[in-house]
């Protein structure tokens, strides 16, 4: 298509929502896409990467539909774009409960949920011995449900992979902070650029961006920290399942002798960027209750990211009220790697069908409104 006829789209934010939207739009020859990303406080790069929403205790119907279909969509996207196992892997997940009666209940829930989510795959009860077979370092005695369709993704690799594919189709990626001047104009380094559409996928940075257009956004920042441990005795096999132990931090063996423990949930933190001693203590002591051989000297890395959450913990996405040019998404909270790619796909479909309203969402006016 002639460049002059192409619709110009800006995407602000290169986390999982922005990067997926950039990939999807770039594949369509009618869009010329520019993605701006400052990289600050990015949740996607810091995230643990667990994709296993089916046994969540959350009662929000829209959220569950979005997370369930989001998990299925990631699997499709991984296949379509030929992601490596280090980027996306169906490793299986193990979810534990302390009381045997709770394991029974969990198993019933899993079997019921699988009726509408066949991608959950095999569901089976596993005892402490079976778990040690799958995860040899676990020393705690746990009672669990294993779900073979559970997956994990590496957020950083996932985003880089999609952006690289987008670049092959003409996507322009600019690593810089921008501001909004009006509904169609982006300001970077004191230069303005006009677009037909702007996608605001800025995670916890959305308030600042929309403030200049006189909108109030009801999202709050939540700091998440996690640790990476080197556990050389751990098998190099990357296909070990993720362990989600009740009341403890998640335990994610990545293979290659690497183990991730995460994450903290710290609302409205004063310090947004630094890894803290308190987080180290919280994460390590929890991990040691699962594997009592772990030591502080095993620590090889830390990650810090900022989640955006809403008062009802639901994400929102869609047209900014009274605008035909700006689409927004935020509030993905602690399950945004699971819901983010599907949210991006739904945002992209709004360009073709502006009035589409899915069964995944509540009215956006619950979360964003013009200041009085
Ligand atoms: C420690 C941790 C563990 C997590 N674990 C999981 C998990 O296991 N499973 C799961 O499903 N989810 C998990 N999450 C949640 C998930 O990571 C987030 O919900 C999701 O990544 C949010 O994606 P996003 O694209 O909306 O925002 P982000 O990933 O935060 O990306 C927004 C981007 O916008 C950029 N930006 C903001 N303002 C501007 C501006 N003015 N100009 C240019 N760029 C700008 C930011 O720098 C950032 O790069 C975790 C989060 C954390 C922090």
Automatic annotation (TrEMBL):
InterPro entries the record matches: FAD-dep_OxRdtase (IPR006076), FAD/NAD-bd_sf (IPR036188)
Domain of life: Bacteria
Keywords recorded for this protein, A-Z: Flavoprotein, Oxidoreductase
Ligase keyword on record: no
Span of domain FAD dependent oxidoreductase: 8-349
Coiled-coil annotated residue ranges, if any: none
Cofactor(s) the record lists: FAD
Protein name: FAD-binding oxidoreductase
Lineage, highest ranks first: Bacteria, Bacillati, Bacillota, Bacilli, Lactobacillales
């Amino acid at each position: 298509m002639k460049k002059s006829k192409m619709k110009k789209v800006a995407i602000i934010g290169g986390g999982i929502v922005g990067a997926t939207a950039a990939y999807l739009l770039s594949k369509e020859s009618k869009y010329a896409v520019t993605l701006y990303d400052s990289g600050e406080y990015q949740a996607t790069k810091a995230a643990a990467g667990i994709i296993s929403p089916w046994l969540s205790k959350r009662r929000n119907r829209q959220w569950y539909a979005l997370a369930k279909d989001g998990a299925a969509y990631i699997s499709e996207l991984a296949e379509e774009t030929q992601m490596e196992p280090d980027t996306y892997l169906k490793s299986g997940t193990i979810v534990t409960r302390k009381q045997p009666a709770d394991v029974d209940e969990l198993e019933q829930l899993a079997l019921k949920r699988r009726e509408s989510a066949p991608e959950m795959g095999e569901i089976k009860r596993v005892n402490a011995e079976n778990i040690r077979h799958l995860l040899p370092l676990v020393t705690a005695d746990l009672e669990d449900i294993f779900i073979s369709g559970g997956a994990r993704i590496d957020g950083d690799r996932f985003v880089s992979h999609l952006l690289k594919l987008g670049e092959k189709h003409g996507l322009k990626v600019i690593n810089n902070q921008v501001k909004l001047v009006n509904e169609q104009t982006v300001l970077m380094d004191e230069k303005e650029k006009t677009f037909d559409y702007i996608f605001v996928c800025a995670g916890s940075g959305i308030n600042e961006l929309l403030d200049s257009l006189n909108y109030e956004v009801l999202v709050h920042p939540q700091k998440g920290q996690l640790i990476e441990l080197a556990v050389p005795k751990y098998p190099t096999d990357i296909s070990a399942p993720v362990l989600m132990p009740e009341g403890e931090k998640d335990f994610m063996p990545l293979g290659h002798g690497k183990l991730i423990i995460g994450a903290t949930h710290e609302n409205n933190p004063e310090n947004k960027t630094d890894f803290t001693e308190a987080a180290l203590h919280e994460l390590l002591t929890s991990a040691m209750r699962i594997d009592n051989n772990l030591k502080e000297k095993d620590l090889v890395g830390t990650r810090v990211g900022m989640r955006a959450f809403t008062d009802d913990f639901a994400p929102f996405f869609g047209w900014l009220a009274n605008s035909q040019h700006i689409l927004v998404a935020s509030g993905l909270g602690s399950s945004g790697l699971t819901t983010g790619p599907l949210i991006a796909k739904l945002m992209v479909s709004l360009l073709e069908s502006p009035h589409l309203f899915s069964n995944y969402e509540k009215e956006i006016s619950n979360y964003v409104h013009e200041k009085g």
